[in-house]
Every structure is written in C-alpha cells, then in structure tokens.
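Supplementary Note 3. Input sequence used for the single-chain structure prediction.
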Amino acid sequence: MKLQRLLAIVVTLVSCAASAVRAETLEEVKQKISDRLDRLRSVQARLTIVQDVDSRGSVYQARTEGLYEIQNKGARSPFRSDMKVTQTLKESGGGSKKAEFTTLSICDGEFVYTLQEGMGRRSASKGRVDPARAMFGDKAFLENLQRDYNLKLLADDYVDGTPAWVIEATPKDAANSPIGRMNHYFHKDSGLWVKAIGRNREGKVISQTAVADIKLNVEIPASRFEFHPPPGVEVVDLTGGSPARPDGARPAEPKAPVKK
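The predicted structure, written as discrete structure tokens, is reproduced below.
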C-alpha cells in the first residue's frame, strides 16, 4: 500500500510538472514570428515551387525556381525575384502543351517592375505593389494568410535540421479552392517561412514550396533593386490599374486546369 501511495504521488507530481509547461498558442507564435522578422536586415535565398494539379482528367504541372532577395525596410521593403518557370498542361484527350520562360521582378519599395522572357518574346511592365501580396520575408505574410484561411498551430517539426513552427491553413472558401489544407513551416530562430506543403481535399500533395541556401543579414547592393529594361523593350505602365503581383515571389496557390 505504501508503494502504491508513493507511485500515486510520483504520477501526480509528473502530471503537475507537465501541465506547468504550457503549450504555445497560435497568437503567441505569430507574435514571435513577427518579432524575429523585425530583427532581420535582409534575406537571400533560393525559392522552389512545384505544383501538380489534376482536374477532370487534365493535369497541370509547374516548377518555379530561382533567387529571391529582400531588404527589411518595413512596408516599403525592396525585393528582387529572378525565377525560371516551366509549365506543362496534359489534356484529357492526350495532347500536351509546354511553356518555359523567365520572370524577373524588381521592387524599389514603391513600384514593381516585371520582365518576362520566353518563347521568342520579351515584355516588361511597371505596376504598384499589392499590399495583400506579402513576400515570404515579410511579417505581413501571416496576416494576409489569415484573411483567406483558418489557421491552426500544429506540433513542432524540423526543416533542414532547424526547429520549426508548423501552421496549418484551411481555406475559408473551401468550395472554390483546389487546396484542402496547406502546412506552413517557420524557422524558430529567424521566423522565416521556409517550407509549405499543399494538399487537395482528397489529401494528395499538389503543391510543395521550399526555401534553401538561406543567407540572413548580408549586404545587398542597392543596384540589385534597380530595374533597367533591355534595349528595345518598352515598359508598359500599369500603375493606373490594379496592383501588380510579382510572379514567383510568394507561395502560389495551385489553379485547377481550365478545360477548353
């Protein structure tokens, strides 16, 4: 009986100690991510986005990869995104279409300039930055994500050997989204968004994003955020219309292929 009482006391003490270590809440983690991002002066990294979406027999596949750079200057942070994009559409009838092009996006803090080259064509445009389209080195990323998704804090994980917070996002308008849920990973030491895995409503992976070769707080020359169009290429001014979105600069939501 004494042994049983002793064991009961030990179990009670262990339970009390465990409950004393309170789990983090979503709001606490969001604040920690924001605080850590505030400490960063700059980010350089390689971004890779892979998409594989099957809809009504047609399959859309895409791979976007390249270098991304951003300086932390608050709401007017300049960035540069230099991406190579490969897209393939396999139609239900057996046909296949493939496109390859490069997209260079440069933001000087006020405007975003985009140069697209591929398939024998070059085009350039100037647009306003859409504040709703946060970059992965931008602490507004989570705020904008929460606007369209319900967020849930999952168990911690590791990305490239570094502890990471994991936040699950499920679309509020589930009926009109190809994504069933998407898990976002944030390094605990820097707050940086470093990985995402998107699944459809059936649980199949349709989107994977990875951030690698990360360099924090390095000096980035101001000239990296200056746009100079190639000779002979006219820059179309879109500043009077809708804000521009720099392709490849944020995790893309997969789009179901449109069957014509």
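Residues 16-20, 243-260 have pLDDT under 50 and may be disordered. DSSP finds three helices and 13 strands in the chain.
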